[in-house]
């Protein structure tokens, strides 16, 4: 998968050299290219923003540097290759595990993290006419810019790519994984030693009885979901849970 990120803070994306994403890059599974938006300006101060038409607080990112940067990136693709543009914005559609799965199936993603009050709307319109453009929010809060959301989204997408996680089965149990645990959060996990500061692990986990362990995990997942995300229980289909139980 190819990923391009256009930003005025290229250093903000340095964590993409670390851990899972860094290793995927080193193995050639991910081709990540970070571009400095200011390189596509032509004035002495490398201006990327201006005051909003109609007045109001804050600044708006000018369309010209974005247009130049995106045209160059798009032209650098193989003939016929078309990227999906991901525009982080608190006004976007929610970023969910389902969207992460969908994006992980695309060959090429271009992220456009903005600062200030956002990017001049005409940029979204211009590329939206020719490309698949997704305006995406990572949650109902406002950050100072889209770079942290890009780190979040890239990590969520990269771990779904074939061969990136050591154990391919491990994301089937993820909280929010489409299909498997329906909409339950994952329950608690334990490792050695069996006793720590007088606290032992739940006995069922030592029983070796896979059916009982799976049922216990389901119950714990349900308990945690009811406590932390009652909204998810409402969307839970009891028939799907029963079907899951019968597979145990
Ligand atoms: N930029 C600022 N806040 C954001 C959010 N919650 N999601 C995506 N991009 C953002």
Q: What does this protein structure show overall?
A:
With 248 residues, this protein is of the alpha/beta class. It has 2 domains: 2-158, SPOUT methyltransferase, trefoil knot domain (Alpha/beta knot, 3-Layer(aba) Sandwich); 173-247, tRNA(m1g37)methyltransferase, domain 2 (Trp Operon Repressor, Chain A, Orthogonal Bundle). Helix content is 33%, strand content 17%. It has 8 helices and 9 strands. It has helices spanning 19-26, 63-75, 97-104, 121-128, 147-158, 210-228, 230-234, 238-247; strands at 2-7, 31-36, 49-50, 60-61, 84-94, 108-111, 132-137, 195-196, 199-200. Strands 2-1-6-5-7 form a 5-stranded parallel beta sheet. Strand 1, helix 1 (19-26) and strand 2 form a beta-alpha-beta unit. The longest helix is centred in the C-terminal third of the chain and has 19 residues, at 210-228. It binds adenine. The site of adenine has 11 residues, from strand 5.
CATH topology of the largest domain, by name, is Alpha/beta knot
Helix content percent band: 25-40%
First and last CA, distance: 35 Å
Can you name the CATH architecture of the largest domain? Answer: 3-Layer(aba) Sandwich
- Helical element count? 8
Run of helices and strands:
EHEEEHEHEHEHEEHHH
Number of strands: 9
Q: Any idea what the shape is?
A: elongated
Integer-rounded radius of gyration:
22 Å
Mean of all residue-level pLDDT scores: 93
Q: Helix- and strand-based class?
A: alpha/beta
The CATH superfamily of the largest domain is known as SPOUT methyltransferase, trefoil knot domain
Strand order of the largest sheet: 2-1-6-5-7
Strand content: 15-25%
Bound molecules: adenine
Most strands sheet: 5 strands, parallel
Total domains: 2
> Which spans have pLDDT < 50 for at least 5 consecutive residues?
none
- Main CATH class of the largest domain: Alpha Beta
Pfam family, one: tRNA_m1G_MT
InterPro entries: Alpha/beta_knot_MTases, tRNA_m1G_MeTrfase_C_sf, tRNA_m1G_MeTrfase_TrmD, tRNA_m1G_MTases_N, tRNA_MeTrfase_TRMD/TRM10
EC number: 2.1.1.228
GO molecular function: tRNA (guanine(37)-N1)-methyltransferase activity
């Amino acid at each position: 998968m190819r990923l391009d990120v256009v930003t005025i803070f290229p250093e903000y994306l340095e964590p993409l050299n670390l851990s899972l994403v860094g290793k995927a890059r080193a193995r050639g599974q991910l081709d990540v290219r970070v571009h400095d938006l200011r390189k596509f300006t032509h004035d002495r101060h490398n201006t990327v923003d201006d005051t909003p038409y109609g007045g109001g607080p804050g600044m708006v990112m000018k369309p010209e540097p974005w247009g130049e940067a995106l045209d160059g990136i798009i032209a650098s693709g193989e003939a016929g290759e078309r990227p999906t543009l991901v525009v982080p914005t608190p006004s976007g559609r929610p970023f969910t595990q389902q969207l992460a799965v969908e994006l992980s199936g695309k060959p090429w993603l271009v992220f456009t993290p903005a600062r200030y009050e956002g990017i001049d709307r005409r940029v979204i319109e211009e590329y939206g006419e020719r490309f698949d453009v997704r305006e995406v929010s990572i949650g109902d809060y406002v950050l100072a810019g889209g770079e942290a959301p890009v780190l979040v989204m890239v990590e969520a997408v990269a771990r779904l790519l074939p061969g990136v996680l050591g154990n391919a089965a491990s994301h089937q149990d993820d909280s929010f994984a489409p299909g498997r645990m329906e909409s339950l959060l994952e329950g608690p996990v334990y490792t050695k030693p069996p006793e720590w500061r007088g606290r032992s692990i739940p006995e069922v986990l030592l029983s070796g009885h896979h059916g009982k362990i799976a049922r216990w995990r389901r119950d714990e997942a349900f308990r945690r979901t009811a406590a932390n995300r009652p909204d998810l229980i409402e969307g839970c289909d009891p028939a799907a849970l029963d079907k899951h139980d019968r597979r145990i």
